[in-house]
Amino acid sequence: MIKFGDLQADLPTFQNTGAIKVDNVIPLKDGYKSLSGFQALSSTGLSNPAVGLFTSFSSGGSTNYAGDRTKLYQMDSSLVFQDKSKSGGYNNSTTENERDFWAFTQFGSNIIATNHADNIQKFEEGVDSAFSDLVSLKAKYIAVIRDFVVAGYTTESSTAYNQRVKWSGINNSSQWTPSQSTQSGFQDIVGSHGNLQAVVGGESFGIIFFERAIYRMDYVGTPLVFQFSKIADNVGAFSPKSVASFGNMIFFLSQDGFYKLTGGQQLTPIGNGRIDNFFFDDLSSNLDGICSAVDPNNSVVVWSYRGSGSTGTSDINNKLLIYNYAVDKWSTGSGMDLQFISSASQEAFTTLESLDVLGDLDNLPKSLDSYFYKEGIVGLAGFDSNNNFGKFIATSLNATVDTTEFEGAEGRRSTLINCRPIVDGTTNTSVTVTPISRSSQLDTISTGSSVSTKDSGDCPLRSTSRYHRLRVSVSGNFNTMSGVDIEARPEGKR
User: Fold this and answer.
1) 259-268, 308-317, 424-433, 465-474: which has the minimum mean pLDDT?
2) Which of 81, 102, 440, 452 fits a disulfide with 73 by CB distance 3.0 to 4.6 angstroms?
3) pLDDT for 256
4) How far apart are CA 33 and CA 24, in angstroms?
5) Mean pLDDT throughout 20-38?
6) pLDDT of res. 370
7) What is the distance, to the nearest Å, from the Cα of residue 21 to the centroid of all Cα atoms in its chain?
8) Mean predicted confidence (pLDDT) in 41-48
9) Integer distance in angstroms from the first to the last C-alpha of the chain?
10) What is the pLDDT of residue 232?
11) Is residue 374 pLDDT above 60, yes or no?
């Protein structure tokens, strides 16, 4: 059997021990499983394209918040986002980037949001009916580190401080005037490392991303309050929303590829020699539109970006990069036009009537005993091109996985006469195989006709060459794709 290998799109086809095409699947330790499509859960979308999504947690459950350029929203029990903007709304169209985002954090019962165009906003759950100014301060990024609200890249008195980190008083999110007694203050981390790009919070320490550097932020008490130490040079966040965190891991895109930061100190390249070059070659000029999210149910982090073949407006992404951090394997996703992705929860589906938002009960995307219907379960979510909120719970997308290039007979030409794709599917699963071959390393690649599998699982082929590769395409729901059993006949020598 030829097992499906890891996605290694950056390596040449010859002697590539992995695969150069692995699309619309989630990597597993041995093989791949299906990637569910995006399904809108509400027909009532935001007023404008989404540029922020956040889930809060409390003893009463979880609540989703969202933002577009002019409004902030709170999701109700019908999965509809209700306008909770301050009087007059917001203006996020005057900032310098093509697509600036809302950043959110939670401090106790307060939901805090910032977009750099307006003062930092707060909404106290169970108390407030609308967002309001938390403080007369603008910032691009916000997070909670220990007992402080921390803002990054601030604007104060009309002056932008692109390398400033500023924090509130201890256990006081509304106190921002520097003071020894409250421990509020700021630090300008001046250097040639570019703009501040992200602030990642934590209970013990925080991480500050610049374009070309990463700093760790540790609490040391008065008089300094926080100590800043550089943990990486010439590595940073190439795009602000490319940074995603889960547990003690932070994943991000740097100028030279994708990285993982573990425990606030161990930096590991995860895309080098595998997908970094592929991604940069495929990426459009819309760098600021890249966004990311972690799906802990599948142990994956996902990046959404605008790549080749995009036909939508400039705020629409059409490609996914998927990394399984548990098994250190990659895949791609395509065929979905999305504005924004994030990790999000949903309200509980407590009655059959509440499931109406998902469509006909006979055609639910998941079985009724699925974890998806339980309140507080966090999964991959986002907004489609119509500004509608949804999750990746629809029918499995059409999947394509290549085998590595192989010789049917060592050192000689051979004819593939039959193969059997190892796909664990259902009665609605359809599998086809396309032979791809070349007679030498200098020859152009020849793609044969696709052949459907028989009821027996066999797929008769007639492909004669020295080097072979098989492209297995699967439509319909399936559990796993493992590899392909092949039957080859060597050609005679002369």
Assistant:
1) 308-317
2) 81
3) 95
4) 9
5) 96
6) 54
7) 19
8) 86
9) 29
10) 96
11) no
The answer to whether the CB of 385 falls within 8 A of the CB of 30 is: no
**pLDDT above 90 (res 223):** yes
> What is the token pair recorded at 240?
């602000």
Token pair belonging to 196: 């501040």
Cis check: omega of the bond before 223, within 30 degrees of 0: yes
Residue 337 has pLDDT above 80, yes or no: yes
Residue position matching structure tokens 């100028």 = 255
Cα R_g (the chain), whole angstroms = 25
Q: Which of 143, 170, 140 minimizes the C-alpha distance to 156?
A: 140
Residue among 273, 278, 342 nearest 308 (CA): 278
Q: Where are the domains of the chain?
A: 2-27+398-490, 39-391
CA 324 to chain CA mean position, Å: 11
Is beta strand 329-344 parallel, antiparallel or unpaired with respect to 379-384? antiparallel
Angle at 78 between CA 74 and CA 301, to 5 degrees: 65
369 pLDDT exceeds 80? Answer: no
Q: Does the pTM exceed 0.90?
A: yes
Mean pLDDT over each residue of the chain, to the nearest integer: 90
What is the pLDDT at residue 92?
Answer: 72
Tokens representing 190 are 């001046």
**Confidence at residue 347, expressed as pLDDT on a 0 to 100 scale:** 52
Q: What local confidence, expressed as pLDDT, does residue 363 receive?
A: 53
With CA atoms as reference, report the closest residue to 397 among 464, 334, 308: 334
Q: Which residue has the higher pLDDT, 144 or 353?
A: 144
Question: Backbone phi, then psi, for 255, in 5-degree steps?
Answer: -65, -25
- 39-391: CATH, from 1.20.1530.20, 2.130.10.10, 2.60.40.10, 3.40.50.720: 2.130.10.10
Please state which architecture CATH assigns to domain 2-27+398-490. Answer: Sandwich (2.60)
Q: Which residues contact 40 (CB under 8 A, 6 or more apart)?
A: 384, 386, 388, 389, 390
The closest of 206, 245, 200 to 343, measured between CA atoms, is: 245
Q: Is the pLDDT of residue 180 over 80?
A: yes
